[in-house]
Amino acid sequence: xxxxxxxxxxxxxxxxxxxxxxxxxxxxxxxxxxxxxxxxxxxxxxxxxxxxxxxxxxxxxxxxxxxxxxxxxxxxxxxxxxxxxxxxxxxxxxxxxxxxxxxxxxxxxxxxxxxxxxxxxxxxxxxxxxxxxxxxxxxxxxxxxxxxxxxxxxxxxxxxxxxxxxxxxxxxxxxxxxxxxxxxxxxxxxxxxxxxxxxxxxxxxxxxxxxxxxxxxxxxxxxxxxxxxxxxxxxxxxxxxxxxxxxxxxxx
Length: 252
Ligand code: FPP
Prior knowledge:
Layout: E1 14-18, H1 22-28, H2 33-54, E2 58-65, H3 73-96, E3 100-104, H4 112-125, E4 132-139, H5 141-157, H6 168-174, E5 185-188, E6 207-210, H7 220-232, H8 241-250
Helix pairs in contact: 1-2, 2-3, 3-4, 5-6
Bound molecules: farnesyl diphosphate (FPP).
Farnesyl diphosphate (FPP) binds next to helix 1, helix 2, strand 2 and helix 3.
């Protein structure tokens, strides 16, 4: 694997991805859906390699939504086994590559064995300074906003925070990923053009890119197309083009 390429303004600091299309990839091959998820796990490695190569600081992957618990029991069970195996297999190598791993979502819904694995992966990689890899598991954007509101309300009830001090910054500081820049670029594979309760708060100004490619088909060329699209965007954050031009020039 080549070292990190020199950074350029077209490189997002934080990439957020909905990995969609595993089931269809398998169905097209007349194989069980879990085969698609296994192929999806391989695509996760392609994606991590690409992010490290490009010097992307943070990658957040939507692995399992709050709603995915409603899938057939056999698929949920197989996915849990896959997560367990992936954790067992990949963590040492990711640690060696200076990747910091964390999980966001309602982890109390997982079995104690998976929760313990998640905690151990986080502990093992906690001081790593390379790619910040967040796995959204049993995650929903509405849950994230609700837990932040709950935390602030608890502080107010305990007399540690005044009601008038609740503002956007206070909320942002209680969201998951508060210490990571908001996603600059969102990618969804699998052809659907929606954000499906992913990082609702954090993606207010994120550039969106969709592809028909199914997640297991992911390759570096597809990811590069997303980066090229990102590089062509003028990010205005609610300002005018004339206002942001000097800001963008000064960051080059
Ligand atoms: C969505 O495709 C994908 C999932 C619900 C699971 C994602 C899991 C992986 C990529 C595998 C391993 C991940 C990690 C982090 C180890 P879908 O099943 O909804 O596909 P479909 O829309 O074609 O049915």
